[in-house]
Amino acid sequence: MNTKPRHVAIIMDGNGRWAKAQGKPRLRGHEAGVETVRRTIRAARRHGIKYLTLYAFSVENWSRPALEVKGLMALLGNFLEKNEKEFHDNKIKLRVLGRRADLPKSVDAMLTRVEAATAKYTEATLVLALSYGGRTEIAHAARQLAKAAREGKIDPDKIDEAAVAGALYLPDIPDPDFIIRTSGEIRLSNFLLWQSAYSELYFTDILWPDFTEADFDAAIEEFSNRNRRFGGVKNIVAAPEGKAKC
After folding, report:
1. CA-CA distance, 187 to 201, in Å (whole number)?
2. Residue ranges of domains in the chain, CATH in brackets
3. Catalytic: 235?
């Protein structure tokens, strides 16, 4: 097909295992993972990908040791400080996906500031999934629709897929065409459960800190060779006369 995805989402997994293999604290793995984020943003821009969503921190991650969580929040702040200029230089818009109220006030304030400063850009969009969970998002959408129905703003009988999609955290962001997960785990781990209904999935054994631009290129090449049918039928060759069709 030789097509490229418009929206790529990545489950960045393996920082802890990378650190353990290196004999280093887990936070060192997260620091190495930040460098991979920078590489991946460059690679996505090179491929002309319009939306890049990174699963940076799940709602379940709050149960990790307090010191690790504190370190992750500090890394997020440092990432924003060091890369804001690159966002402006390359006209990249920043968006946040998740329960923002859970985040430390200082981190949320910094995210809000960078979002506002980059809001006018249309070249590309970087979405950071922070304190995010797919089931949490769907439950949030259900509450929003229930409230609207209670207030008489919508007819419950007319709630359809479009209504649910419109009540999600970022309804203006298109569904991901391609979801990549590193580290060898083969599951979505509560990531974009509604939006991934027709996403192409790609799993690699490479740990996130070791994921290179070449690895990203290989994933995009794999996507370009897939035949996306969305439940329909494409490129079906007629069976020879007398043969049953599949």
Report:
1. 9
2. 7-224 (3.40.1180.10)
3. no
Nearest CA among 6, 33, 29 for reference residue 199: 6
Give per-residue pLDDT as tens, 175-223. Answer: 999 999 999 999 999 999 999 999 999 999 999 999 999 999 999 999 9
Rounded CA-CA distance 93/117 in Å is 8
**What is the rounded CA–CA span in Å between residue 241 and residue 119?**
59
Given 15, 61, 83, 225, the catalytic residue: 61
**Catalytic pick from 13, 15, 83, 215?**
13
Could you report the per-residue pLDDT of 52-91, keeping only the tens digit for each? Answer: 999 999 999 999 999 999 999 999 999 999 999 999 999 9
Dist CA 217 CA 40 (whole Å)? 10
61 has catalytic annotation: yes
Q: Are 162 and 90 in contact (CB under 8 A)?
A: no
Could you tell me if residue 5 is left (phi over 0), alpha (psi between -120 and 50 degrees) or otherwise beta? beta
> In the prediction, which pLDDT does 2 show?
60
**HSE-CB of 30 using CA atoms within 13 angstroms:** 18
Q: For residue 125, is pLDDT > 60?
A: yes
Taking all residues of the chain, what is their mean pLDDT, rounded to a whole number?
Answer: 93
